[in-house]
Amino acid sequence: MRNNIVCIFTISFGLLTLMQVTNGKIFSRCELKKALEKNKVNRSFIAHWVCLAESESGRNSSKLTKKILYDMYGIFQIHSNEWCGRGGVIGGSCWTRCDNFLDDKLDDDIACAMKVFDKYGFKNWKGWEEKCKKQDLPNLSDCT
Ligand SMILES: *[C@@H]1O[C@H](CO)[C@@H](O)[C@H](O)[C@H]1NC(C)=O
Ligand SMILES: *[C@@H]1O[C@H](CO)[C@@H](O)[C@H](O)[C@H]1NC(C)=O
Ligand SMILES: *[C@@H]1O[C@H](CO)[C@@H](O)[C@H](O)[C@H]1NC(C)=O
Questions:
Q1: What's the pLDDT tens digit per position in 29-68?
Q2: pTM of the model
Q3: What is the rounded distance in angstroms from the CA atom of residue 2 to the CA atom of residue 59?
Q4: Residue 121 has pLDDT above 80, yes or no
Q5: Could you tell which of 19, 56, 61, 62 is best to mutate to test the pocket of ligand 2, judged by most ligand atoms within 8 Å of the CB?
Q6: Domains of the chain as residue ranges with CATH
Q7: Partner of 104 for a Cys bridge, out of 14, 25, 62, 143, CB 3.0 to 4.6 A?
Q8: What does UniProt give as the signal peptide span (predicted)?
């Protein structure tokens, strides 16, 4: 009897943990703004970054897009191979595991996205080209 209860408890807890991992986190616009500010992203571009994340991942920090030659990771959909290593391997110009971009800690995502930006600019991101460039950006003035 006691064993059954322990067993059910363990399974439920396991499922709960699994669900949390797979669901990731949808950042609100204001939460994302805050994270960008904390990482000293140029204020003139913050609305662009929020728009970009919205377009690329729906602000979903665990968004993973699988392609054949590369995958795209996290809220900014950072590409494997050039920027990070796939399959748990440390690599890319950001010298990290791509999987590290799937959690809801954004400091590393932001640092790497800034490197991508330094090299290619916003035009690296199709989502930015399509939804943000020369378009209305999210209004963040109500964020406290
Ligand atoms: C922020 O970006 C603007 C526009 O490109 C630029 O004029 C300004 O110097 C930048 N500020 C910082 C602190 O880099
Ligand atoms: C976030 O992305 C992950 C991985 O792509 C997906 O499984 C999950 O359903 C997404 N969450 C939401 C709320 O869309
Ligand atoms: C953004 O929202 C604020 C408050 O709701 C409003 O006063 C302001 O006009 C808006 N700015 C733009 C550019 O729409």
A1: 999 999 999 999 999 999 999 999 999 999 999 999 999 9
A2: 0.85
A3: 43
A4: yes
A5: 62
A6: 23-131 (1.10.530.10)
A7: 25
A8: 1-24
